[in-house]
Amino acid sequence: xxxxxxxxxxxxxxxxxxxxxxxxxxxxxxxxxxxxxxxxxxxxxxxxxxxxxxxxxxxxxxxxxxxxxxxxxxxxxxxxxxxxxxxxxxxxxxxxxxxxxxxxxxxxxxxxxxxxxxxxxxxxxxxxxxxxxxxxxxxxxxxxxxxxxxxxxxxxxxxxxxxxxxxxxxxxxxxxxxxxxxxxxxxxxxxxxxxxxxxxxxxxxxxxxxxxxxxxxxxxxxxxxxxxxxxxxxxxxxxxxxxxxxxxxxxxxxxxxxxxxxxxxxxxxxxxxxxxxxxxxxxxxxxxxxxxxxxxxxxxx
Amino acid sequence: xxxxxxxxxxxxxxxxxxxxxxxxxxxxxxxxxxxxxxxxxxxxxxxxxxxxxxxxxxxxxxxxxxxxxxxxxxxxxxxxxxxxxxxxxxxxxxxxxxxxxxxxxxxxxxxxxxxxxxxxxxxxxxxxxxxxxxxxxxxxxxxxxxxxxxxxxxxxxxxxxxxxxxxxxxxxxxxxxxxxxxxxxxxxxxxxxxxxxxxxxxxxxxxxxxxxxxxxxxxxxxxxxxxxxxxxxxxxxxxxxxxxxxxxxxxxxxxxxxxxxxxxxxxxxxxxxxxxxxxxxxxxxxxxxxxxxxxxxxxxxxxxxxxxxxxxxxxxxxxxxxxxxxxxxxxxxxxxxxxxxxxxxxxxxxxxxxxxxxxxxxxxxxxxx
Lengths: 301, 369
Known about the structure:
The complex is a heterodimer. By secondary structure, chain A is α+β, with helices and mostly antiparallel strands.
């Protein structure tokens, strides 16, 4: 019995050594063959012994190119880690968080407004903390008004009012003593209309809508024009023809978005109603009404 | 022309004051209130070329830069009204309103542009003819983003990063008015060392000098990768600020940092007659022999350009792999034999078959008999 146990222990020991030998070979591989400049050297050697197809060369070239998306600036006492935007001179100083939860963003992107030259940047600024549905989807006739909630841009889960929004109020107070800018909009959250079923609130567009969009994106190249229109209509069924006007929210009495309920502090609310930008919008009413949702022919008229 | 723009700006400022509501907040150093709009983080659009353009200005960081004494319109000179149309690219060589204290004249980056034009990065060759691939030669923004102060504090003991309020308080004993003391303190102490961390300098150079297409067009080696292989590169990656980066070797000591010259130019810091002196610069290897610079710093594994080095690499890699994997395979099969002592592809019943087996196998044999 003892001999048998000894034999088993011996065999386990040998198996462990064999496993270690294989692992060691695997471990040493990148140390022997992996080095910076390997792609260039590999291509060079390949050129000497094997020309390779054009596609293979393009693929290898793509693999060698490094896409730099972030930039770190080390001031010694402070590290600024920010996204890298080619050609940008001024520092950003914060992370531009992508909205992964909103179905509209999958096709229209995070800066979807391009048409109205005078206000497209302002409208895109709103996209930073408002879901598209907040302005581009209004309740039908006879329907009760939407309820609005914050949702997480990353997960799509509904959230309470962001604590960071209160920092705006604090930063206003500090403005007398320093030059820092109030914190606007960097909450990681967005406001969206929600629907409530059996007491449970959910975003206007749910996982099924997202699946529909993903399926459309995957298949659109194979779809006929009619099929594309059909799918597009289905995806946009909850969207309104005309968006909510700016002054519907930027007003003191009964704003369309219940900003106070969404956590906006008093000073910021006052600014939203009386800000110079809103004053400009009132003054230049002709670029006040976005018409991007209308067909091109109608816009031309 | 200048006064016309000024009048427009005064009118603009008056209009903006009139537009201002009671509850709005005046931000310091932004006298014409560009931040009314540009303080919003999501202010952006996708331009006609499909590039994402962000118009947000981080005032906190801007106020930490040497440009903080400039108004926005002093660089963006074509903005005459709000809301403004698409703006032109900023011309860094234009004269700005700040009086340069050493010469009592208005400040401009024109002299730097002139120095750059004389360097390897200039768009014209020695005869004044345009070099090929003009679009590849850098402008200011290709290498520089907004510079930020990196002040040093050396009140007691070693120098450390950050502002010394004690030092500033001493300056303020005499220079009481405004931000004079702080501005000068930050400016001067930031210039006592590199205003950019060395790793960031190599990253800036890498934007072009590690771009495969760029290197191919200009027949250049991958100098960034080869730099990383050097002792200097390793030190830098470990966070050292005392090691040499690209500028330290490629600019003659005491010369303008923008004057980077080709190794073929006799005045270049890396010309074969000068490179020894470059290594012996005052902050580097002062007591070294000129032979210190006798090695090839930027040798790549390019078969056509450096065939000897390339085949040496292939040989040593192959040798290392052969030796390593031969012995690993030997050990593996040896262990396999321990595990299966009687295994054989072809049965051999002659008595010598078990002669070389280990002690354990001999024991097994005895047990069996």
